[in-house]
Amino acid sequence: MSDQQRPRVALITGAASGIGRAVARRLQEDGLRTCWLDVDADAGRAAAEAAGGTFVHADLADPAQCRAAVDATVETLGGLDVLVNVAGFQHLDPIDAFPDATWDAMLAVMVSAPHHLTKRAWPWLIRSGQGRVIHLGSAHSLVASPYKVGYVTAKHALVGHMKAVALEGGPHGLTCNLVAPAYVRTPLVERQIEAQARTRGIAATEVEERVFLEATAIKRLLEPEDVAALVAYLASDAAWGVTGSVQSIDLGWTAR
Q1: Do residues 23 and 48 touch, judged by C-beta distance below 8 A?
Q2: How many CA atoms lie within 13 A of 7 on its CB side?
Q3: Nearest-10 crossing angle of helices 18-29, 224-235
Q4: Cβ neighbours of residue 19 under 8 Å, at least 6 residues apart?
Q5: Would you state the pLDDT for residue 192?
Q6: Integer CA distances (angstroms), 23 to 16, 68, 84, 117, in order
Q7: Cα separation of 252 and 256, whole Å?
Q8: Would you give the DSSP letter of residue 95?
Q9: How far apart are alpha carbons 42 and 153 in whole angstroms?
């Protein structure tokens, strides 16, 4: 079957929960064949099977496993048209207490892995003629917050990577964009509550109002499905001319 005849294929990282799961589910509903990648084999496989997708296990801190995940996607689904880099994690500490191992792991998973995946997928994305690379950034791709030096650095770095991919991919019909949401109601954000309270010296019950929503114009957390809808648009034919951009969905946070 030629690339023009087969269904489009998407590989989504961090697909076991949160934004990654919402994105994978939405793309599956939109008619793409989806490969759900996660380090959590049990949760990832269950989520993929429930939606009718394919699961691949990988620890994205290992470049070899990044390459193997792309190879497995192509072998199983016949190609690769859309790569959505969602996987990431958070850690809060002052700079002088930020663990070296955590810094290294954050950059490996949130900067190096998207590059390794993009590089391995490149021939297939180019062959597609409508390749899409979508990085899940954050409002922290554009602004900073204290106690998040690893996360802020990684999310800023993704902006530069996105722009370079957009320029090199453009002549081949490949687009690359970064989606930058404010706080989203996910397990990753919920796990921050105690750490935010500790580092800022406030009660846990105050974190949502005084931290998550302090800088936003709309005082409401996003849902994973809100982000998935924007990713689905960027993955579609309609977004063929949108590339090299940061697509903010940040409730007005960075309008200040």
Answers
A1: no
A2: 14
A3: 50
A4: 86, 136, 181, 184, 186, 224, 227, 228
A5: 82
A6: 11, 22, 8, 17
A7: 8
A8: G
A9: 30
Distance CA(79)–CA(33), nearest Å, equals 10
In DSSP terms, which residues pair with 136 in a beta bridge?
A: 179
pLDDT digits (tens, 9 = 90+) for 204-227: 888 888 889 999 999 999 999 999
Q: Is CATH 3.40.50.720 the right assignment for the domain spanning 9-182+223-247? A: yes
Does the annotation count 151 as an active-site position? yes
DSSP-assigned letters across all residues of 184-208: BSSHHHHTHHHHHHHHHT--GGGHI
Average pLDDT over residues 236-248: 98
Residue with tokens 């809060």: 92
Q: DSSP readout, 114-166?
A: HHHHHHHHHHHHHHHSS-EEEEE--GGGTS--TT-HHHHHHHHHHHHHHHHHH
Neighbours of 22 (CB within 10 A): 24
Of 147, 151, 183, 233, which residue is the catalytic one? 151
**Pairing state of beta strands 54-57 and 132-136?**
unpaired
% of residues, the chain, pLDDT over 90 = 87
Residue 51 has pLDDT above 90, yes or no: yes
Q: How far is CA 139 from the centre of its chain?
A: 13
Q: If you search the block for the tokens 């935010």, which residue do you land on? A: 196
